[in-house]
């Protein structure tokens, strides 16, 4: 199997390293077409927005079933540990999966997650058999605390939610990869262009999760295809080994052994 596309996480083998959110598409049909074009096979859903057991969510759930996707429910909109844990239990029952993307907002203006509540909720959910995908900033201390309480997946943002700025601190993401070589690192939030996704993958991240950049594109289907290709290219580049940057110009054509031409004497 091709490591650039196939990998295992949370006890499941996936065919793609791109994960897609399900919100803000112009229509369910466009969402389905964009996901198919991207080759992603994990879609995130909010329990508060999409419930397959009630009428409001049945149409959406039908699309997901038809695609045969892995569902990653999230706790979007939660502000407390109790709220997030309760939502996670409801999601496990509704969607029949132990996977949960743990989101705990600490600041309504920046949408930055609450690091203290995140660790507490992650510890409780890990102890209760969940596979926790914690959404976090790129803080290395927070990453260590989450790993210490049982997380083997980390979801640092590239930049603030919805900013589309791409990876603002590549050095920290590289350090996170080095410090936690056995932990799956999925960049989530702030990705605005396929080049941003490729950059994250070149840094050694295992996958990328995004939503708005595809859903709100002029052509979500073509953009989904572009992101799928970018993620594969970035992973292949990381595996191949990127050249180290240097301070000065270096000739790409060697000069050793080349003939030296002299002006003829007169």
Describe the structure.
By secondary structure, the chain is α/β, with parallel strands linked by helices. The protein is built from nine helices and ten strands. The protein has helices at 28-38, 55-67, 81-95, 115-127, 140-148, 170-179, 194-202, 212-215, 220-240; strands at residues 7-9, 12-14, 18-21, 42-46, 70-74, 99-102, 131-136, 153-156, 184-188, 207-210. The strands form two sheets. Strands 5-4-3-10-9-8-7-6 form an eight-stranded parallel β-sheet. It is globular. 41% of the residues are buried.
Strand portion: 15-25%
State the distance separating the first and last CA atoms: 68 Å
Which ranges are low-confidence, i.e. pLDDT below 50, for 5 or more consecutive residues? none
- The spatial strand order of the largest sheet comes to 5-4-3-10-9-8-7-6
Mean pLDDT across the residues is: 88
Helix content: 25-40%
**How big is the Rg?**
21 Å
Structure classification: alpha/beta
């Amino acid at each position: 199997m091709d490591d650039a596309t196939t990998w295992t996480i949370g006890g499941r083998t996936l065919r793609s390293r791109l994960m897609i959110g399900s919100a803000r598409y112009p229509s369910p049909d466009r969402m389905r077409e964009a996901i198919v074009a991207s080759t992603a096979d994990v879609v995130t859903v909010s329990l508060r927005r999409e419930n397959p057991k009630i009428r409001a969510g049945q149409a959406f759930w039908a699309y997901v079933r038809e695609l045969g996707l892995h569902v990653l429910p999230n706790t979007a909109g939660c502000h407390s540990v109790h709220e997030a844990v309760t939502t996670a239990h409801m999601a496990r029952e509704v969607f029949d999966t132990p996977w949960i993307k743990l989101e705990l907002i600490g600041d309504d203006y920046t949408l930055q997650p609450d690091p203290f509540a995140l660790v507490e909720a992650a510890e409780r959910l890990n102890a209760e058999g969940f596979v926790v995908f914690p959404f976090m900033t790129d803080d290395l201390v927070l990453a260590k605390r989450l790993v210490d309480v049982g997380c083997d997946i980390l979801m640092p943002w590239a930049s603030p939610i919805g900013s589309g700025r791409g990876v603002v601190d590549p050095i920290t993401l590289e350090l996170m990869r080095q410090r936690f070589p056995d932990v799956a690192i999925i960049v989530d939030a702030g990705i605005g262009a396929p080049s941003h996704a490729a950059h994250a993958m070149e840094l050694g991240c295992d996958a990328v999760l995004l939503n708005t950049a595809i859903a709100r594109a002029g052509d979500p289907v073509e953009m989904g295809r572009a992101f799928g290709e970018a993620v594969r290219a970035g992973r292949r580049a990381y595996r191949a080994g990127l050249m180290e940057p240097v301070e000065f110009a270096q000739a790409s054509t060697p000069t050793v052994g080349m003939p030296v031409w002299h002006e003829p004497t007169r």
